[in-house]
Specification:
Blueprint lengths: L2 H16 L4 H14 L3 H8 L8 H21 L5 H26 L4 H29 L3 H28 L17 E5 L9 E5 L2 E8 L2 E6 L13 E3 L2 E3 L6 E3 L5 E3 L8 E7 L2 E6 L9 E2 L4
Antiparallel strand pairs: 1-10, 2-3, 3-4, 4-9, 4-11, 5-6, 6-7, 7-8, 9-10
Helix pairs in contact: 1-6, 2-5, 3-5, 4-5, 4-7, 5-6, 6-7
This protein binds FE2/S2 (inorganic) cluster.
Length: 301
């Protein structure tokens, strides 16, 4: 591709990012996504929390592979490949449903220009899906030429959606998680006075360049990494409810006991640290690998 062509594509993407007209359909889509991901179980399943990796990019391979294979059969398979091509188109349609659901869940965690790009990406893919449904029906009725033509147009829509999907991941870092921070030294760090910590109120500190959030829950002090593993949100500005901290940016929730994910979009748990109280001072250190460690309790409790 010439430099001019690349410039034109990048200009088109910038226009999409700045097109505020796309915010209106975004609002409607947010309501649908909110209903879909209301339960933690569904949000975690669609985000890929159970996989430790985002689910949507993995699923996209299935419909893209099926529809591309069908197009190859359309081109070079001849009459014998008619049934095989139709089945591949149908399989791609079935696979596109969970793929779109996972994509909608990821879309829900985008904002501004990133979300506008994601809206157009989703629209292009939805158009491709509808065209493939039309192609599959035409294939069943024996309208081979029409079906092949519709599938070719669907692949063009899919390519446009794929270009924007690549832009979302590689340029805008959508779905790219933050690597978890751990304390670099194997020692107890002095932090703050026990009395300085208010009940269920996150308190942010930095130890050796690592943000840490301390939370007092009754007589217990919890300490976990203060940078959200989803996209680096400040957990010290989050909220705490029943020993679970919620990120202020996209609502990931982590258990304070061990940093485990309660609710996606995060797919990587937070490192949790060991705590103790010495002479009224809260001390923190990294937990030994595989050790659930301990949280400090108030002296005398
Ligand atoms: S940064 Fe996205 S949920 Fe925390």
């Amino acid at each position: 591709m010439t430099l001019t062509g690349t410039d034109a594509l990048q200009r088109a993407v910038r226009r999409i990012e700045e097109a505020r007209a796309l915010d209106a359909p975004g609002t409607a889509l947010r309501a649908v996504a909110g209903r879909l991901t209301r339960s933690n179980e569904m949000k975690n399943a669609l985000s890929g929390t159970w996989l430790g990796h985002r689910l949507h990019p993995l699923l996209t391979d299935v419909p893209i592979g099926a529809w591309t294979s069908a197009a190859v059969l359309d081109l070079v398979g001849g009459r014998k490949a008619t049934v095989g091509a139709r089945r591949l188109v149908g399989f791609g349609i079935l696979a596109a449903v969970p793929t779109a659901m996972a994509g909608l869940s990821d879309w829900e965690d985008t904002y501004g220009g990133e979300q506008r790009t994601a809206t157009v990406h989703a629209t292009a893919n939805a158009v491709a899906l509808l065209l493939q449904v039309a192609s599959w029906r035409a294939r069943r009725r024996g309208h081979g030429l029409r079906a092949r033509t519709i599938s070719a147009v669907a692949l063009a829509a899919l390519a446009a959606g794929g270009y924007l999907g690549g832009h979302l991941v590689y340029n805008q870092q959508t779905g790219v998680d933050e690597p978890p921070d751990d304390l670099p030294q194997d020692r107890w760090y002095d932090t703050v006075a026990f009395d300085q910590l208010a009940e269920d109120r996150p308190h942010g500190i930095t130890l050796d360049g690592v943000p840490v959030v301390l939370v007092r829950a009754g007589a217990t002090i919890h300490a976990i990494c203060g940078r959200c593993t989803h996209r680096g949100g400040p957990l010290a500005e989050g909220t705490v409810d029943v020993r679970v901290i919620r990120c202020p940016w996209h609502g990931s929730e982590f258990r304070l006991d061990d940093g485990a994910i309660v609710r996606a979009p995060a797919t990587t748990p937070e490192p949790a640290y060991e705590t103790r109280v010495r002479d009224g001072l809260v001390q923190v250190r990294a937990r030994a690998s595989g050790d659930r460690g301990a949280e400090a309790s108030a002296p005398g409790s």
